[in-house]
Design brief:
503 residues, alpha/beta, Rossmann fold, UDP-N-acetylmuramoyl-L-alanine:D-glutamate ligase, eleven-stranded mixed sheet, 41% helix, Rhodanese-like_dom, YjeF_N_dom_sf
């Protein structure tokens, strides 16, 4: 499923109308009728339905919804909120009016009375084009709808919600359901704006799919994508062909981080795994993991430091960072790995802090580099506050990945994966049970295994993030709650996820 910005969606609309020859009124007809069909299983024949129509395309869609439901015997009234209707919207208003539909003015007393009695409200006011603070009469109408007890359906976007980011966002319709036209917009995945959508589904209206796919800069990653791209174990494969990984981390105070990453890497299919850690940490990891081999790293006061004789040439992928500490000598080790390794290197946790003052080192690498920050770590790399980051995660992630030529995994409810060329994938698996210490360590281990088994780094990362979230979903569905789920439990969920992928 593709994700489009407002600019991309306008271009697809333009192409459909000017190049293909589909008129705007036909697109409105298709949208309104499709949305009305989606609504019918959710409403009753005796419900009083109020459709709030703006002056643009969204309003035209609303009049088609109102007409379709009215023609099938539903109790429907329309409210004109905006002024100066576009030609296509005005045409659909006239057709609705000629069919006997009622149109009331938003500022009339009859609107307030109808709103108080409404069981269903359809928000067809602003849609894609809104930017900045709402003005009258939209401000008052949004507040009145949010104060009502009616079930609220929004068309494309809840009015007031921007399509792309949340920088200028202040107030919006709180929808129970949103019927998104053709493709979701970035705000459906942004923490500040996503809750306003309620439950959402996409509605196809006949826009040219091939052109939309070429315009879209982002997409979601589905089970079908995973099954299409997931590596198949060959009959004559062996531990060497399944990848030799190196995982560096685990100070004396955080041995569990490297333990969880190591367990996850092997459970996710790594053929061989070497753990580089402190000598005194090795027994702790070994007690949970007999399959790994170990390299003892130099230390100072229980923290890993630069180890000059460390050879990174024998590995197929490397992970650096978890539980290492953030001192200068520790950072020197991370930077040396980045400079010397000619294979994919993933940086997580403390490893991200190590490169904060020397980001140029990332651009100088020839092999893929993967960064896996949570919002706090990403804000640190960008020298900004977390709320500012969360208002523009797609834009900021894209700029960082392009400038520094990295694969960026911005973790969150909807993890955003960005390639060095700026293309983006959004993961939708996972649940709040992952909101505990150690979940990121497990993800890093899974990604290590994936990077060694895929030719395409983006497919490797997307599959790894999908599998990580899906394991949590499977466990919550079958045996755990979101409260008691632990990061170490995820290893148990991986087996079922992998079996389902191979079916």
């Amino acid at each position: 499923m593709y994700i489009v910005t407002a600019k991309e969606m306008y271009e697809v609309d333009r192409y459909a109308m000017e190049e293909i020859g589909i008129s705007g009124s036909i697109l409105m007809e298709s949208a309104g009728r499709a949305i009305a069909e989606r609504m019918k299983p959710l409403i009753g024949t005796t419900d009083r339905i109020l459709v709030l129509c703006g002056s643009g395309n969204n309003g035209g869609d609303g009049y088609v919804v109102a007409r379709t439901l009215l023609n099938e015997g539903y109790d429907v009234a329309a409210v004109q909120v905006g002024r100066n209707l576009t030609a296509d919207a005005a045409m659909h208003q006239q057709v609705y009016d000629r069919l006997g539909g009622e149109v009331m003015d938003v500022e009339a007393d009859t609107f307030q009375m109808a709103l108080a009695k409404a069981d269903i409200i359809v928000d067809a006011m602003l849609g894609l084009g809104v930017r900045g603070k709402l003005r009258s009469p939209y401000t008052e109408t949004v507040q009145a709808v949010n104060d009502s007890d009616a079930l609220v359906f929004a068309i494309d976007l809840p009015s007031g919600v921007p399509a792309d980011d949340a920088v200028e966002f202040e107030e919006a319709i709180q929808a129970d359901y949103t019927f998104i036209i053709e493709a979701p917009k970035p705000s459906a995945f942004i923490q500040k704006t996503a809750p306003y959508y309620g439950e959402w589904k996409t509605v196809s209206i006949g826009l040219p799919a091939a052109y939309l796919s070429r315009q879209a800069g982002a997409r979601t990653w589905t089970e079908q994508d995973v099954k299409r791209s997931f590596p198949i174990r060959q009959p004559f494969s062996h531990k060497g062909t399944n990848g030799k990984g190196f995982l560096i981390g685990g100070g004396i105070e955080m041995p569990g981080s490297v333990t969880m990453s190591s367990m996850a890497a092997l459970r996710a299919g790594a053929g061989l795994l070497t753990v580089g850690t402190l000598r005194q940490v090795i027994p702790s990891v070994l007690s949970h993991l007999a399959e790994a081999t170990f390299t003892s790293l130099d230390e100072e006061n229980g923290v890993i430091v630069d180890t000059e004789d460390l050879d990174v040439s024998a590995y197929d992928a490397i992970v650096v960072g978890m539980g290492m500490g953030r001192g200068e000598s520790t950072a020197a080790l991370t930077k040396r790995v980045l400079e010397e390794a000619e294979v994919p290197v993933l940086l997580d946790a403390d490893g991200l802090y190590h490169i904060k003052s020397d980001l140029e080192i990332l651009r100088n690498r020839q092999a893929p580099t993967v960064l896996t920050p949570h919002p706090g770590e990403m804000a640190m790399l960008l020298d900004m506050k977390v709320p500012e980051l969360l208002e523009r995660p797609f834009e900021l992630a894209r700029k960082f990945a392009i400038v520094h030529q990295v694969h960026l995994v911005l973790k969150g409810t909807y993890t955003i994966i960005t390639a060095p060329d700026g293309s983006q994938i959004v993961n939708t698996t996972g649940n709040p049970g992952l909101g505990k210490g150690g979940s990121g360590d497990v993800l890093s281990g899974i990604l290590l295994a994936m990077l060694m088994q895929h030719e395409d780094p983006m497919e490797a990362i997307a599959n790894g993030v999908y599998v990580h979230g899906k394991a949590a979903d499977v466990l919550v569905e079958d045996a755990h709650s979101q409260q008691d789920l632990l990061a170490t439990d995820l290893m148990k969920g991986l087996a079922k996820v992998f079996r389902n992928i191979s079916d």
